[in-house]
């Protein structure tokens, strides 16, 4: 490797360095008391962390974030497997691509736009409730009942991101030797049994990728709760990222940074193992 | 042209399950203008050695010198591959699929300070020698295997490299055109007076091109010499078997009437030389015959043998036989199927090779 | 002897299979369907018409009404998304090729360097942007780029160059190692090898990465939200937010805005969806053979 080879990494390294600078700058701010009341920051140890963690909003927003990401991981995986199974057993490649595209389509639409659409779909009289009435189902108090607010957000997230697990499970299924499936068929196994006994047990990779991506993508959803509740203040929809934005707008800068550091640590705990053991092994080979 | 020497070169790959010694203490000097062949079985370290010469790998220990100048030492590449002026033909050709044959051949020249017209002239010159002028505008996928190999060769020699490296250069070619390809490489190398290093597990590649040969086994250079030397007096049975089919036999040398006799079962072959007692010998099939009477000078009758089975292979009948009262198998080639079960075996004693037990 | 078992005929099974997929697809398309139809309702109609009922007298007037509002944001978004994604993809690809070279070189510490850099680009790809808010705005303010195209582009590059490097490092592995070695023996340096040999051979992966990042940057809401304050610099997702307006307003304009804002990613998805999907697949670490 020559010295000039390092020119190639230069742009990535510069912007990577900016990213690191930002992350560490954030950590630095988190150890001060910078806020509206203390416009000139001074070192104050971990008091910002203590304040954030002891604030009324922290446990609720942490729970909301975990609810959102946890549900997305669970339901995303289940739905993804189901849809991938349906797609796998299609005999026509064209039909498979067609249906897969529909499931993936939401990924192309911005979360801000999704929020607008669902805001109206969740309208008590004019939204999907209208359809529920026709189908003989009860009205659901989507955004009008506080206990339904997080489930409403979770449904949007599942709708938006299920394309990912469907895609990755399908890829895993298609990677399994076709002759094994044919042998099972000759032994009289039903499609459902093949899915349960052969396809799913051999899709560890699909599971790892789907879980990591579902968690990471839903963990940073911001515009849905922000737009649905018209700002960062509605505590029933507040996730960690929304809470940190709220701390910022109310000028608790140090606390916002402390919370950001916590958020980054949670994300990093998933990103780095995923990157080094999930993604990178493809490159070494 | 350049003289290349390796001074106790080691290459050690660390793997999960311990270390692999791909090369062990290689000491070798390849002189300027020499056509050097490296022969060895699969996994012996041939490619590794060639890649170290090319600068694509660094020796873990030891030094590599080009004309007395150290180009790599103890895990460090000092002169990189781009500065060693090496032409290399890869096993799978490695032509750039996004470039035409012309652009492929011209690519090394674009890294030198050469005018466009001079470049074109050089490319056309080598293309003419290699008879690929008519396909210069084609992409690699539009070329036959033989043409691709010629383009790869053209790309390797267009910049007048100081050394031309060939790694299993013919293994991807049809057997049908392999011989003409070998002849082409030899003639080009001769004409351009190139230093050539050719690596292969096929002795035919090595013997058709090189005038000196190194044999490598499990990372060790076990024998270096002229092709005839390697062929006629291999250092070990392994070397002998690498070059061609050979019968490995155990026997005993005894003294009878003041003469040394090699005895294998009922077979008795008079030999010269000071061997005694238990010995291991190698006899190539072409030095054995099943006949009624010897036709030529130098052949002696060894005794009766029993034919076990006859198969057909490579235009010959391959006869497997055993001495009477011994179960060691001996292979002999014949032009016709042996008629009888028991026949007389003739041998050329001067061609018998003795190995250490 | 065949085992006696009550089984559905293959034909019935196949019909049920398609029915199941069609039901899932219809449910999945409801929001998109709602988005498209409701922009065609008149002000009169929206007051009482449920969101899932198609317009009785389709009209273009809601689109007319919002077109001028979205005109500037669409131009802004186009400028930012195109420049940011092109730059990210090219610069990130260079980084990806460097990883490839690095993974095949064995100098001391190359493994650690490679793991460190790779973790860094993965972090850049997946980090919640919101958690970089304060230092990022400070940084953009410090370099005097608040409320400007360069400011938005630089902030996107911080996240999308890593994304491109991550995706491309999977696509680059399809180029055989020996081709790179051949080029090196031919005297070419890595920069030249990248542009002359690697880039032409990874065009499909390059397009996939580019498309993926165009869509991502077009849809990014948070960065333009915090890095622009003047209306003339707004990008589409932020402009859209103004149309939430609570339930008091007329929703036909909201949906017209939603449709216009999604038009470009949707068109890209319909015509180049294959490349978008391959970008997603690379994000999962399975760039090979797709
Ligand atoms: N990059 C590498 N990493 C680890 N081990 C390697 C590497 N390259 C080669 N080896 C090991 O070194 C030994 C020699 O390999 P080499 O490729 O030089 O053999 P070869 O003589 O060229 O064989 P062949 O005739 O099959 O091409 C083998 O045991 C091989 O497994
Ligand atoms: Mg080899």
UniProtKB/TrEMBL annotation, chain A:
It is found in: Cell membrane; Membrane. Gene3D superfamilies: MetI-like. Signal peptide: none annotated. One of its GO terms (biological process) is transmembrane transport. Keywords: Membrane, Transmembrane, Transmembrane helix, Transport. Residues 62-274 form the ABC transmembrane type-1 domain. Coiled coil: none annotated. PANTHER family: GLUCOSE IMPORT SYSTEM PERMEASE PROTEIN GLCT, TREHALOSE TRANSPORT SYSTEM PERMEASE PROTEIN SUGA. This is Sugar ABC transporter permease. The lineage of its organism: Archaea, Thermoproteota, Thermoprotei, Sulfolobales, Sulfolobaceae.
From TrEMBL, chain B:
GO terms for molecular function: ABC-type ferric iron transporter activity; ATP binding; ATP hydrolysis activity. The keyword Nucleotide-binding applies. Residues 4-243 form the ABC transporter domain. Keywords: ATP-binding, Cell membrane, Membrane, Nucleotide-binding, Transport. InterPro entries: AAA+_ATPase (IPR003593), ABC-Glucose_import_ATPase (IPR053598), ABC_transporter-like_ATP-bd (IPR003439), ABC_transporter-like_CS (IPR017871), ABC_transpr_FbpC (IPR015853), ABC_transpr_MalK/UgpC-like (IPR047641), GlcV_C (IPR040856), Mo/tungstate-bd_C_term_dom (IPR008995). It comes from the Archaea. One of its GO terms (cellular component) is ATP-binding cassette (ABC) transporter complex, substrate-binding subunit-containing. This is Sugar ABC transporter ATP-binding protein. It comes from Candidatus Acidianus copahuensis.
UniProtKB/TrEMBL annotation, chain C:
Its main location: membrane. PANTHER family: ABC TRANSPORTER PERMEASE PROTEIN, GLUCOSE IMPORT SYSTEM PERMEASE PROTEIN GLCU. Coiled coil: none annotated. The chain crosses the membrane at residues 15-36, 74-100, 112-129, 149-172, 193-215, 255-277. It is found in: Cell membrane; Membrane. One of its GO terms (biological process) is transmembrane transport. Keywords: Membrane, Transmembrane, Transmembrane helix, Transport. The lineage of its organism: Archaea, Thermoproteota, Thermoprotei, Sulfolobales, Sulfolobaceae. This is Arabinose ABC transporter permease. Pfam families: BPD_transp_1. One of its GO terms (cellular component) is plasma membrane. Residues 74-272 form the ABC transmembrane type-1 domain. It is a multi-pass membrane protein. Belongs to the binding-protein-dependent transport system permease family. CDD domains: TM_PBP2 (cd06261).
